[in-house]
Amino acid sequence: MTKPMKYRDLVRLLKQAGFSFRQGKGDHEVWYGPNKAEVVLVKDTECSPGITREALKAIKKAKEA
């Protein structure tokens, strides 16, 4: 089971993997990876386990490509 991560830690991992973001609606951010991966984050102090899991999968795919 994936544990929640702090928003700033997850953003740091996304940037290191080569992701860039654009502003979504409201407090949402859409992050695009080099392999056309897409991750939607909510600006909050902590990201839920589901969002963390999705983001870590996308980061892993980006590093493999």
Outline the structure in words.
- The structure is a single chain.
- The chain has 65 residues and is of the alpha+beta class.
- Helix content is 40%, strand content 28%.
- Strands 2-3-4 form a three-stranded antiparallel β-sheet.
- Strand 2 and strand 3 form a beta hairpin.
- The longest helix has 16 residues.
- The chain is globular.
What's the SSE blueprint?
Layout: E1 5-6, H1 7-16, E2 20-23, E3 28-32, E4 38-42, E5 46-47, H2 49-64
Antiparallel strand pairs: 1-5, 2-3, 3-4
Key attributes of the depicted protein:
65 residues; alpha+beta; 3-stranded antiparallel β-sheet; two-stranded antiparallel sheet; 40% helix
Q: Could you give the order of the helices and strands?
A: EHEEEEH
Distance N to C terminus: 25 Å
Number of helices: 2
Radius of gyration of CA atoms, rounded to a whole number:
11 Å
Instruction: Quickly give the structural class.
Output: alpha+beta
Judging from the principal axes of the Cα atoms, what is the shape?
globular
Q: Largest sheet at a glance? A: 3 strands, antiparallel
Content of β-strand = 25-35%
What average pLDDT do the residues reach?
93
**Major sheet: order of its strands?**
2-3-4
Low-confidence stretches: none
Approximate helicity band? 40-55%
Task: Count all strands and give the number.
Answer: 5
Summary, kept brief:
This protein has 65 residues and is of the alpha+beta class. 40% of the residues lie in helices and 28% in strands. The longest helix is centred in the C-terminal third of the chain and has 16 residues.
